[in-house]
Amino acid sequence: MRIDLHTHSTASDGTDTPAELVHGAAAAGLDVVALTDHDTVGGHADARAALPAGLTLVTGAELSCRLDGVSLHMLAYLFDPDEPELARERELVRDDRVPRAQGMVAKLRELGVPVTWEQVARIAGDGAVGRPHIATALVELGVVGSVSDAFTSEWLANDGRAYVEKHEFDPFDAIRLVKAAGGVTVFAHPLAVKRGSCVPESAIAELAAAGLDGIEVDHMDHDEPTRARLRGLAADLGLLTTGSSDYHGSRKTCRLGEYTTDPEIYGEIVRRATGAFPVPGTGG
Predict the structure, then answer these.
(1) 77, 58 in Cβ contact below 8 A?
(2) Count of other CB atoms within 10 angstroms of residue 117
(3) Which of 98, 141, 164, 183 has its CB surrounded by the most CB atoms within 10 Å?
(4) Stretch among 16-30, 62-76, 192-206, 215-229 having the lowest mean pLDDT
(5) Which whole-number Å values give the CA distances from 47 to 83, 128, 235, 238, in the listed order?
């Protein structure tokens, strides 16, 4: 089995619609794909409706969190999307995305970049607006050569000149809420230092003690020594280890299925979940 547990669609900051994503996953030879858009489950229904035969969909979301001033992302799998407390907190995060993005546009204009809110809103479309949409605008304007080039201290990184904070989950609350909704939590790309500051390993240990299920190890932003370090940490803490593409369509260079999760790990995630269950494709 080939299993990719971290992808994004136009419901957040990917460039493939949910339908295009699941058909692309099947074409890439995947058996299982998780749709984990940022702080939203808005793409799940369309993905289900288009799910090809032979492909299983894992419903999920990537939750925006902050701990001691450091941003981190928590992958949440197979939770009940209608559980009210978790749904309310996701809505708070989503509602803050527009004023936050508008604040970053304002900062960029103060720095002399002729970006407009109308341009960013056009790029975001119906998706949950975020930094990748603003980065795409910078690419369109010729300010940077690629989306990844915008995530530096000069522009949009966590310590960047145009960065604006947003409402985010406390990660301990995220773990508690996801578990209460029957879901499973995996810390996404925990040592992706190229993205900015990362939480220390001691914080990962505290999250594990609070019920964190796993950490994402095989990821394009982790080099081989980092992956080895994370595998050792996971073994010490009793955490599951996953691998995923973090696919965003044409907005990033990673390919569907570029990194995958061991079938035994996937089976354990499914076993632990009680809020929702994987959806087998019957043709769509």
Answers:
(1) yes
(2) 17
(3) 183
(4) 192-206
(5) 21, 17, 34, 33
